[in-house]
Every structure is written in structure tokens, then in C-alpha cells.
């Protein structure tokens, strides 16, 4: 399959690499051209150029503002005929913003699939993400086996526009809260005179045992905060979750506390480090 890929951050690069390893032919575009050229894939001159040379277009961007720009700019995806094309968006979008992207693509003859992923760089490189999808069922079936199955061990089709984005931030409520709790427990354990390695070893077979701790344990020991999923991203996602909770009149006190903790990473200068670096804030 000829796939156009836009967005080569940490997660996007891992997904693109995985798709290429599955035999797909990739053409890429990134707002920073140097990053696109460094990927080793052929580089399109613009999103419009990329669309014209691809069967399916994948997006993996920071937020809905970036997605809207790529779709609507003068040389954007929706500046050309999209007949027969499917836009698969792996971005974690705001649940209100995302519904308009369907209309933008359909107005040009294409289909848009809202397809946020659960998991980060390592599972992406192994094809072990979880993919949550909303959108047209025929478009979903068209890309499920050849594309989504390459990157996802678990694939959930929710259908109704907006539901996939809502589910993604519901998932990230637990992700952010778990990471904040692990960081706080580690900081308290160290302050009590227990070595970092020992605290993490015991948490990993005790109350802290989780996918989050398994993914971040070695990185915390080594103080490796190179970004797989940044503090800025989890902060953005928890903000979207709070918007959803406000609309639903639901209280989310643990998510709110975690969000404010991640907010401190901006003033501490580590917002763009991996979200396990929140440990530096509570330490």
C-alpha cells in the first residue's frame, strides 16, 4: 500500500518505521523538512503533493490545531480531490474539534478515520499498540487488515465520530494518574532512605505493578528522560479530559491533581522530556 505519512515526532517516526517494515511504501511530510529528510523516506513537497501520490494518508501530530492546519492550509490535504482516499489520524484530538475533520475530508470526496493509539514508541515499533477507531465502517474495513493490524495488537471500532477521542483521554486519565503516583511513591521512598532501584523493584511486584511502571522502571533508574511520550502531551490530554468531564458534569479529582503536577514541568523546564520526568518535580 502507498502510504503518505505526516508527523514524524517520536511516536510518528516509530509508527512510520513499523509500517515500512511491514512492506508498505511510504512518502512523508513534516513541518520541519529536516526531520522528514532524516527519516530516510522519500519526502513530499507539501501535504497536497503527498496526497496526490498516496492511497492512504496517516497523520500523527501534536494536537487538533496542527491537524486542522495540515488539512486546511493552502497546500493542505483538503486542497485537492480526495476521492477514494482515506485519512487515518493517529493524533490525540480534542473530542469537539475532531468532528469537523470528517466534514472537511468528505467535502473533498474522502473519508476520515479518527484513530488515536494507546501506547508509545516501543510498542509502536513492535506493532503492539492499541488502536481505537471512529468513522465510516467501510473505510475502517479497508485499512484494518493491511494497515492498522501492522501497528496494533488490539483494535477497537467505536463507530460514532468523537467516541475514539473521548476514549483516548479516558485511557490517559489512568496513564497520567499512574505515572504521577509512581513518581510520588518513588520520591517518598528515596526520601525515607531506600535506594531508587529497591523502591522500584518492590513497587513492580507490589501496589505499583502496571504497564506504566514496566515501561518506565529502567528509565527512572537511569534518569533517561528522552521523550517517548512527553509531559506536554499528557498535560494536553488531561486538559481535554477535564473539558469532557465538565461537559458530562463528572468529577475527576485524581485527574485534576495529576494535571496540575504535570503543569509544573513547564516551569521546571522539563515539559518536553518524557512524562516519567514528573518524578523530578515531586522529588
Automatic annotation (TrEMBL):
Q: Report whether Lipid biosynthesis shows up as a keyword of the record.
A: no
Instruction: Say which domain of life the source belongs to.
Output: Bacteria
Domain 3-hydroxyisobutyrate dehydrogenase-like NAD-binding residues, every copy: 162-281
Q: Which InterPro entries does the record match to this protein? A: 6-PGluconate_DH-like_C_sf, 6PGD_dom2, 6PGDH_NADP-bd, HIBADH-like_NADP-bd, HIBADH-related, HIBADH-related_NP60_sf, NAD(P)-bd_dom_sf
One annotated GO molecular function is: NADP binding
User: Which Pfam families does this chain map to?
Assistant: NAD_binding_11, NAD_binding_2
Q: Where in this chain does the record put each 6-phosphogluconate dehydrogenase NADP-binding domain?
A: 2-159
Mind listing the UniProt keywords for this protein, alphabetically?
NAD, Oxidoreductase
The active site of this protein is located at 168
Which PANTHER family does the record associate with it?
CYTOKINE-LIKE NUCLEAR FACTOR N-PAC (PTHR43580:SF2), OXIDOREDUCTASE GLYR1-RELATED (PTHR43580)
Its name, as the record gives it, is 6-phosphogluconate dehydrogenase NAD-binding protein
The organism is: Winmispira thermophila (strain ATCC 700085 / DSM 6578 / Z-1203)
Amino acid at each position: 500500500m502507498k502510504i503518505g505519512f505526516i508527523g514524524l515526532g517520536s511516536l510518528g517516526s516509530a509508527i512510520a518505521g513499523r509500517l515500512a517494515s511491514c512492506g508498505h511504501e511510504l512518502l512523508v511530510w513534516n513541518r520541519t523538512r529536516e526531520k522528514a529528510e532524516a527519516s530516510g523516506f522519500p519526502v513530499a513537497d507539501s501535504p497536497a503533493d503527498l496526497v496526490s501520490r498516496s492511497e492512504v494518508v496517516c497523520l500523527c501530530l501534536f494536537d487538533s490545531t496542527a491537524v486542522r492546519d495540515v488539512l486546511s492550509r493552502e497546500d493542505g490535504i483538503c486542497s485537492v480531490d480526495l476521492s477514494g482516499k482515506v485519512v487515518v489520524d493517529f493524533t490525540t484530538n480534542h473530542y469537539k474539534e475532531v468532528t469537523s475533520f470528517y466534514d472537511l475530508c468528505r467535502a473533498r470526496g474522502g473519508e476520515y478515520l479518527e484513530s488515536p493509539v494507546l501506547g508509545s514508541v516501543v510498542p509502536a515499533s513492535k506493532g503492539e499498540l492499541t488502536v481505537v477507531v471512529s468513522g465510516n465502517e467501510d473505510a475502517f474495513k479497508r485499512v484494518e487488515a493491511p494497515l492498522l493490524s501492522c501497528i496494533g495488537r488490539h483494535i477497537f471500532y467505536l463507530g460514532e465520530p468523537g467516541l475514539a477521542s473521548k476514549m483516548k483521554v479516558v485511557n490517559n486519565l489512568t496513564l497520567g494518574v499512574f505515572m504521577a503516583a509512581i513518581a510520588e511513591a518513588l520520591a517518598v521512598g528515596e526520601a525515607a532512605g531506600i535506594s531508587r532501584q529497591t523502591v522500584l523493584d518492590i513497587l513492580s511486584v507490589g501496589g505499583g505493578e502496571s504497564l506504566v511502571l514496566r515501561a518506565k522502571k529502567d528509565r527512572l533508574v537511569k534518569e533517561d528522560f528522552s521523550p517517548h511520550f512527553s509531559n506536554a502531551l499528557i498535560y494536553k490530554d488531561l486538559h481535554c479530559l477535564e473539558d469532557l468531564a465538565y461537559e458530562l458534569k463528572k468529577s475527576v479529582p485524581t485527574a485534576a491533581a495529576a494535571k496540575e503536577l504535570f503543569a509544573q514541568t513547564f516551569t521546571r523546564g522539563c515539559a518536553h522530556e518524557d512524562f516519567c520526568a514528573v518524578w523530578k518535580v515531586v522529588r
